[in-house]
Amino acid sequence: MTSPSETLIELTGICKRFGGLAALSDVSLHIRRGEIYGLIGPNGAGKTTLFNVITGLYQLDAGTFNFAGRAYAHCKPHVLAQAGIARTFQNIRLFANMTTLENVMVGRHLRTHSGIWGALTRSPAAREEERVIAERAHQLLSYVGIRRPANTLAKNLSYGEQRRLEIARALATDPMLLALDEPAAGMNSTETESLKTLLQDIRSQGVTVLLIEHDVKLIMGLCDRVAVLDYGKKIAEGVPEQVRNDPAVISAYLGCGDD
Amino acid sequence: MGFMLGLKAFTAAVLGGIGNLRGAMLGGVLLGLIESLGAGYIGDLTGGFLGSNYQDVFAFFVLIAVLVFRPSGLLGERVAERA
Amino acid sequence: MRLHRLAKHYFAALGVALLALPFIVDAMFGHGWVRIADFALLYIMLALGLNIVVGYAGLLDLGYIAFFAVGAYTYALLGSPQFGLHWPMWAVLPLGALFACGFGVLLGAPTLRLRGDYLAIVTLGFGEIIRIFMNNLNAPVNITNGPQGISGIDPLRVADFSFGKAHEWFGVEFAAVHLHYYLFLAFTLLVIFVSLRLQHSRIGRAWMAIREDEVAASAMGINTRNVKLLAFAMGATFGGISGGLFAGFQGFVSPESFSLMESVMVLCMVVLGGMGNIAGVVLGGVLLVVLPEAFRHGAGPMQQALFGKTVVDPESLRMLMFGLALILVMLWRPAGLWPSAQRRRELMPDEAVAQQERDTVYDVSK
User: Which of A25, A133, B63, C68 is deepest in the core (most CB within 10 A)?
Assistant: First the structure.
């Protein structure tokens, strides 16, 4: 599709502070189209903060944020979703009392248009759109491997299924960048293995994947490049092998007593 | 009316900054002043169209204005948004 | 297929019952109860409108009655001797709805980004403010006639047909309350239709997504501010329509009809019946109008029969029982008397959907 070296998202000098605490200071990184990019670091290193910045939940204090060639600083979350960034959440945030199918259908919201009038008249166009939304949602559900009836409430899914449903919902927005916040948390090794297959398949469809993960094995086996955050600063970046042997990374992990 | 009193108390608290003791006091004093001065002068300001019987509406407009322009109140700390 | 036909019969029977209801009620309990049925329909319309705001979009609105008031006063001012204007109903009703909608947007635009509890307080305040204005806009320029209210409001009428007078067709006399019943029934069905259509649409899903998790909804690309504003405006519009009908039916409006208690009452209908479920909300509306009335009429005579005298004033007993019933329902059925079908659907999966699921199973681990 596109050349692999083309930059999809570029962050330069990102700063974010909460009161006196600098959650991110001067973080710069760029992610190329079509790669799986891992973001690791000890707890509280600012990984989720960075996620919230690039998905518009937090407004950055300084720095520039370019996505697909356009500047997106200080945008609302729905604008960034429209631009092509979809995400999942570390502490799963599904629409708990809606069915699995409806959850994914909500993801189609921004790629569809029918409004009040279409809903009231059920015009052929509106009905057709609704049918296509449902069809795509069914496809995505089976794609991520949820085999329950589509009218199961999201809150009644197992933990692993809920994580997959979040991915399906994010994919429904037709993202260019899929940002996953600890997708393997709480999964057993079989589930993690099938998640890995799923993510590789998603990438092969041309979607760039940004991944926060604690499971170092998964990161090392899956990512093309990895960045390490510690105390809100990027301390290393590169291919997994290189990062794993970086002395700064080793000391950050040992120093924190994490893992 | 009991709940009108409640609404004013809430407004005073929001004006000063929720969760801030000094803020609540300041908000209460300020709201009281705004209300009385407003009710006293509204007749002059609107050329007699509105009178002091609109006293109760001031609390409401103060509430809206604070929530829109300074949701943390006068003395409140900036509350970090939940993600 | 058989089920479909059964449903058809069921709906036909329900339709006949609804059409015959005023005559049955009239024969059994008298005119007064037909009037109560009319009010029940008005309240159901209100509750359905609030259901869009509270039940679908999850925005707690404690001043909903203000929109009802705006609709009612619009009708009253444009169709009464107050200004000597006697505009026809087909012009005034939509205008009232439009004004109510405008007020909804006006209130919603600055406040809808607030958190739930703040929104509740602000809407509560708004409801009161509207009432204060209605109460005081009689001097120096008399607009609303103040606490005395506006009387002599034109009856609802379409062209030459007035709903305020009895008519006779086929040798059957239709009293004014009967005619209003049919008119309100038609409007209620319209509101139900709109609610149903919206519920199962792209917009309805967006509302529910916001109710479930606003942050996730916005991350999924929903413009939460606009979508919430739309819910607010829709709810307000329904409130405005029923307000206009109320003014025309009653012939008199005063600020007293739009107190906080009314807002609470409508909210109770929604919560008690089952938030987000249309049938539940209708049930809640019927129960909260009919039961207190029945109690009012029944409690006095019953005490006479039991104790030979009236021990507790029926009026205060009524409120006591009302509060007690609410608490009990919320304790035992927190989701309301008739919660949404979603939970039932879960127990009986749709066979067609299940089949499709089986056909398209995709194993990621292979």
Answer: C68
Chains with ≥3 CB–CB distances under 8 Å to A: B, C
Indicate whether C360 and C259 sit together in one domain.
no
**What are the residues whose beta carbons fall under 8 Å from the beta carbon of C112, sequence distance 6 or more?**
C59, C119, C225, C228, C229, C232
Residues A93 and A113 sit within 8 Å (Cβ to Cβ)? no
Q: How far apart are CA C326 and CA C314, in angstroms?
A: 18
The arithmetic mean of pLDDT across residues A224-233, rounded, is 90
Same domain, C192 and C76: yes
Tell me, yes or no, whether C178 lies in a domain.
yes
C341 min Cα distance to partner chain B (Å): 31
Average pLDDT over residues A102-119: 89
Whether this model's ipTM surpasses 0.85 comes out as yes
> Residue C73: inside a domain, yes or no?
yes
For the cut 90, the answer to whether the pLDDT of residue A7 exceeds it is no
Single out the residue of A16, A15, A12, A26 nearest to residue A65, CA to CA. Answer: A12
One domain for residues C246 and C353: no
Comparing alpha-carbon positions, the chain B residue that sits nearest to A93 is B83
Q: Which chain B residue shows the shortest CA-CA distance from A90?
A: B83
pLDDT in tens, C194-250: 999 999 899 999 999 999 999 999 999 999 999 999 999 999 999 999 999 999 998
Q: Taking the model in full, what pTM does it have?
A: 0.86
Q: What is the mean pLDDT of chain C?
A: 83
**Do A151 and C202 make contact, defined as CB atoms within 8 angstroms?**
no
Contact check, Cβ <8 Å, C140/B48:
yes
User: Three-class SS string for A239-253?
Assistant: CHHHHHCCHHHHHHH
| Contacting residues of C for B64, CB less than 8 Å apart | 110-111, 122, 125
Quote the number of domains for chain C.
2
- For residue A151, list chain C residues with Cβ-Cβ distance below 8 A: 342, 345-346, 349-350, 353
Both C199 and C346 in one domain: the answer is no
More confident residue, C215 or C155: C215
| Cβ contacts of B62 on chain C, cutoff 8 Å | none
